[in-house]
Amino acid sequence: HGLGLRVVLRPGPYVCGEFEFGGLPAWLLRDGPIELRTDAEPYMGHVERWWGELLPRLRREGLMLDDGGPVMLVQIENEYGHFGDVSEVEADRRYLERLADLARRHLGDGAQLFTSDPDDLAKLTRGTLSPSASRLGSEVLTTVDSCDVPEDAWAAQRSFNPPGRSPFFCSELWVGWFAHWGEPARPNLAAQRARDVAERLRRVLAVNGGTGSVSLYMAHGGTSFGWWAGANTADGMYLPDTPSYDYGAPIDEGGGHGLDEAGGDKYAALQSVLLEAPSGGGSSVPSSSPSASRPPSPPAEPQPLREEPPPPRRLSSTVEVELPEAVRLMEAETLAALSGGGRCCDELPLPMEEVGCDYGIVVYETELPAGGGGPLQVSRLRDRLVAFLGG
Fold first, then answer.
1. Which residue, of 71, 181, 231, 332, is most buried by count of CB atoms within 10 Å of its CB?
2. Angle at the Cα of 207 (from 166 to 63), degrees rounded to 5?
3. Distance from chain centroid for Cα 145
4. What is the mean pLDDT of residues 315-337?
5. 79: annotated active-site residue
6. Are 81 and 124 within 8 A, CB to CB?
7. Taking Cα atoms as reference points, which of 134, 169, 131, 129 lies closest to residue 153?
8. CA-angle at 355, arms to 352 and 358, nearest 5°
9. What is the pLDDT of residues 159-170, one digit of tens each?
């Protein structure tokens, strides 16, 4: 905030497919399946309680833009056109409207609300509160992500906003991609060369006479620690994500310059475009002065500014670790120690949330009749399965 940075807040409640359960808590499913991401109970009751705790804190702590804070935009849901259909399903339209009403109630009339969907007319129709579909169409800005062809993306965005009220905002300019288990180490990134991403960024900023706005996705790669990595689907296949979310970002997972597969420096390529832009300011380091358009923040401890991320780092040599003891995983004593002795019985395997295991590993055991044989078939598997036969 002290550097003049602004915040695009994405409070969900669903935030992203690549995060475990889309950011929703696993305990929602503890009592069995419920309808999610639509206007249905008990889901919406939980959402109202959560946002009733979270959003008022933004006002109390002066974080909204009209209070002198950095939060200038608040996103409602995320890429809802992939999941729901506000144009055909009444409960889905009410869902987005209730979220917008909740945000307005807690954040005030000064908060600019928006939705984000791919620049695809079908998904925008299903996922946005356009004036033709909702009473809130003139209040909730429709924005687009992907933006492979920025001029077409802006045309799509304009068709879902009131005339003259559609400043181009590419809410996610994809600079790389994520990885699924079983895929090559850095899939699809060869097409996301530094020079290509830089050219798309230049075209986004040039839209509508040089007034285009953009949010880089991702600007800084990261890590999904523990069990937090999410999953995606394609053609009916379940595709679990790896814990690395480096994404081929201009600042990589380790904090250095992100490189494309040809060795091109994405950080340097995108930096050069931003410095050329009208708002670039001609400096490689953000000004430490707060914007003159808002009250200054309370003084913070001065932090040293680094001109840019460090150069790319290479992994050190292999380190050998000796493991002198071992146990047999499937022995009853080992399983009891790992599980704390928790066991339950049912005719069919229960979802892990229903047995009180939100994260981790569940062992299912059964006895099969002798003889016969044949392939093991498991339908609707939504995780990794390792099967042991005979013990």
1. 71
2. 55
3. 12
4. 80
5. yes
6. yes
7. 169
8. 50
9. 999 999 999 999
> Exposed (0-12), middle (13-18) or buried (19+): which is 223, by Cβ within 10 Å?
middle
Is pLDDT above 90 for 203?
A: yes
At 2 the pLDDT is 82
Given a cut of 80, whether residue 32 has pLDDT beyond it is yes
Pick the catalytic residue from 79, 97, 139, 353: 79
- Span 29-40, mean pLDDT? 94
Please report the pLDDT score of residue 243 as a whole number. 93
What is the structure's pLDDT at 302?
42
* Token pair for 107: 């954040």
Collapsing DSSP to helix, strand or coil, 171 comes out as strand
Q: Which residues of 362-388 are buried (b: 16+ CB within 10 A; e: fewer)?
A: eeeeeeeeeeeeeeeeeeeeeeeeeee
Q: What is the pLDDT of residues 56-94, one digit of tens each?
A: 999 999 999 999 999 999 999 999 999 999 999 999 999
Q: How many CB atoms lie within 10 A of CB 279?
A: 9
How do strand 237-240 and strand 231-234 relate by DSSP bridges?
antiparallel
d(CA 173, CA 150): 10
CA distances to 72, 141, 169, 285 from 4, rounded to whole Å, are 12, 24, 19, 11
Q: How many CA atoms lie within 13 A of 359 on its CB side?
A: 10
Task: Considering the candidates 20, 77, 172, 353, report the single residue annotated as catalytic.
Answer: 172
How crowded is the C-beta side of 99, counted as CA atoms within 13 Å?
29
As given in the structure block, the two tokens for residue 340 are 């704390």
**Taken in order 276, 278, 281, 286, is the CA torsion positive or negative?**
negative
Q: Is the CB of residue 111 less than 8 Å from the CB of residue 139?
A: no
Beta bridge partners of 9: 74
31 in Cβ contact with 43 (< 8 Å): no
Coil, strand or helix at 288: coil
User: Positive or negative, the Cα torsion across 323, 325, 331, 333?
Assistant: negative
Main-chain phi, psi angles of 7, to 5 degrees = -115, 130
